[in-house]
Amino acid sequence: MTTLTPRSVRKKLEDKSFAAKVERSEIAVGVEPLEVDLSEHIQRIIDALELYADELGIEPRSHS
């Protein structure tokens, strides 16, 4: 997950073929009640997934 950032996820979301079945408008509606911006929400998800990197088969960020 070393390269996974809110910015990179937002950029991927602009590509219609990435997560093609996900309605982009639903993402915005879903984040609204949390009262955070989309980048902050994405970072929270990245941080949460990082705790389970081994189980998910993803590489955790190196903490230098």
Given as residue ranges, the uncertain stretches (5+ residues, pLDDT < 50) are: none
Q: Helix count?
A: 4
Order of helices and strands: HHHH
Note the gap between the termini: 14 Å
Structural class: mainly alpha
Give an account of the 3D structure.
- This protein has four helices and no strands.
- The chain has 64 residues and is an all-alpha fold.
- The protein has one domain (6-56).
- Helix 1 packs across helix 3 (38-50).
- The two termini are 14 Å apart.
- The model has no long low-confidence stretch (mean pLDDT 87).
Could you give a short description of this structure?
52% of the residues lie in helices and 0% in strands.
Question: Strands, helices and their partners?
Answer:
Elements: H1 6-13, H2 24-31, H3 38-50, H4 53-56
Helix pairs in contact: 1-3
Identify the notable features of this structure and list them briefly:
64 residues, mainly alpha
